[in-house]
Design a protein that fits this description.
Elements (H helix, E strand, L loop, with lengths): L18 H55 L3 H45 L2 E4 L2 E4 H13 L11 H12 L2 H17 L20 H60 L1
Amino acid sequence: MPSQKPGNPNNALHPIVTTRQLARRRYRQRRQQRRQQQQLQQREELRQRQLQETQRRRQQQQRDRQRQQQREQNETPIQQQQRQQRQQERIQRQQVQQQERLQRQQEQRQERERQRQQRQSTPIIATRHRYRSDSDIEREHQYYLSRGFSEDLDDVDPHEHLQLLELESMDPIERAAHEQLEQYEQSLRPQPSTSLHLHIEHSVQYQTEEELLQAQQVKQDELERHVEVQLLILQQDQLEQSYQIQAAEILEEEENEEDLEFKFSQLSH
């Protein structure tokens, strides 16, 4: 059974397509052809300029070589000897630099090979997709000792230790955002209920009025920070919407200009 869907109106053979639409389509095709021709012409001009620049550099190099040969021919024997000596010194320096470069490359290859063998020979500890060898753990141990941490690093929770490493690897903006998000999530968790007892000697979870006020102030600060974050997100969304509106207006203006150009071209014909 043949399809009952109408054909594509953009097709030139569709009966709904009007003469005006066909003329506009041909006008756009001509504009596109002109742009392509301009691009090809610009590419050809750029290629010609590059060829001319290359030829100019070669000619300049050839003139420099000729002048250098002329100077060498006019040199006295003492000047020739000095020049040859300078050339030998330059060659020796280049050889020394080449040897040093080869030596550094050899040392780097040996170091990479040593690290590869060490990674293969040492056990690997995986903690939340973070892989550390024994040598890495020892370096981290020394690092935290130098920062004033206690020597009982083995008693530290691995999850907390990994969080410390992740926080240190963040930049200040990411770290501040992470801390705000963590504080906000913590404020959403249910807190254990604490009651004020009349007798202090029988109170285990006693809180003074000052501590309660401090806790309320902390909660208020967290709420204000959360509101600020939400406001920033809202401002960013509004900015993106304004950009989209601007883009739509620019597109509409271009279409209007295109229609005007088309009308002028029709009038000129």
